[in-house]
Write a structure and sequence with these properties.
Elements lengths: L1 E5 L8 E5 L9 E11 L1 H8 L9 E2 L3 E9 L8 E5 L9 E5 L3 E3 L6 H21 L6 E4 L5 H9 L4 E6 L14 E4 L15 E4 L19 E4 L12 H4 L5 E4 L2 H20 L6 E6 L3 H10 L5 E5 L1
Parallel strand pairs: 9-10, 9-12, 10-11, 12-13, 13-14, 15-16
Antiparallel strand pairs: 1-2, 1-4, 3-5, 3-7, 3-16, 5-6, 6-8
Length: 308
């Protein structure tokens, strides 16, 4: 089968389409013939070396949608599904994924929209559930032009929404109807925030995150950290939080995986029911390097998808 093999970390050019053996399915796994493959930002970091990539060489990628061709349960064969595997292997014509991370695609939803929504919409829904938003609260969504940020704004529609986006990309978030849009490429953007922010969905990270604290509602402000676009952790300590009565939650680890997995069926149903999907561009598998360049540039808004 055709697949994208990565032999070493580096620039987009390290991703090569090659002929490789069909992966062997084990008990508890499903074999999927892929129709659409997601390209999330963390894969850019894995490819570049900013994050670990596991043992190499390996078939790259973690998210795909398609049709089940082998499974322990014969009733699954022929079902259209969207799946994720932290073991990789998704950038291929055939993909093995754990059964527990494989979900039916609702009727009326195609593979491209399913894979574009499955992970970011699930993460956004899990974040909103964790935040326990109250109607009318003021919410800051960092990187609102991204796939996760866009779904956060959709799921937080009853709140006053402030979003950040890159320079020149304000138009890309207009459909989210934000109350305020700030350019997070401007080093001084945090000084332009109003007081009284109740919830921050933090995707940027870095030491500058501390500048948000005095803008937050004392006694009930919540920070949920789920991304590190800056490449650095927020430099916030208990000494920063305690005097203000604020809380900070790190959205990672096994608890994060379980919360996202639990949110996925409803997230997919919401998309199938008409919630707008955030898709930037699609690329054929042979143009995987261009797809990575697009995601890495941060010029788009929404998900980049590969077509095998």
């Amino acid at each position: 089968m055709r697949a994208v093999l990565m032999r070493e970390q580096g620039g987009p050019e390290v991703l090569k389409v090659e002929e490789v053996p069909v992966p062997e399915r084990k008990t508890g796994e499903v074999l999927i013939r892929t129709e659409a493959i997601g390209v999330p930002y963390y894969e850019i970091q894995q490819r570049s070396g900013a994050l670990p990539a596991g043992e190499l060489p390996a078939v790259f990628g973690h998210e795909a949608a398609g049709t089940v061709v082998e499974a322990d349960d014969a009733a699954l064969v022929g079902r259209r599904v969207v799946a994720m595997s932290m073991a990789g292997g998704a950038y291929a014509e055939l993909f093995v994924a754990p059964r527990e991370d494989t979900f039916p695609i609702p009727d009326g939803l195609d593979a491209v929209n399913a894979v574009a929504a499955a992970v970011p919409a699930s993460i956004a829904l899990a974040l909103v559930r964790t935040a326990k938003l109250a109607k009318g609260e003021t919410v800051l969504i960092e990187a609102g032009g991204g796939a996760i940020g866009g779904y956060l704004a959709r799921f937080a529609a009853d709140q006053r929404i402030i979003v950040t986006t890159g320079a020149g990309k304000a138009a890309s978030v207009e459909h989210l109807n934000p109350d305020l849009v700030l350019d997070h490429d401007d080093p001084g953007w945090r000084a332009k925030l109003p007081d009284g922010i109740d919830v921050v969905f933090a995707a940027i990270g870095g030491p500058e995150t501390t500048e948000l604290l005095d803008r937050m509602t004392p006694g009930r402000g919540r920070i949920l950290v789920y991304g590190l676009l800056s490449g650095a952790l927020p430099s916030i300590t208990a000494a920063d939080l305690l005097p203000r009565g604020l809380t900070m939650t790190g959205f990672g680890g096994m608890g994060f995986i379980a919360a996202v997995r639990a949110a996925r069926p409803l997230a997919l149903d919401r998309v199938a029911g008409g919630l707008r999907t955030a898709i930037d561009r699609t690329y054929p598998l042979d143009e995987v390097a261009k797809a990575h360049q697009r995601v890495e540039s941060r010029e788009g808004s929404g998900k980049v998808v590969l077509l095998p």
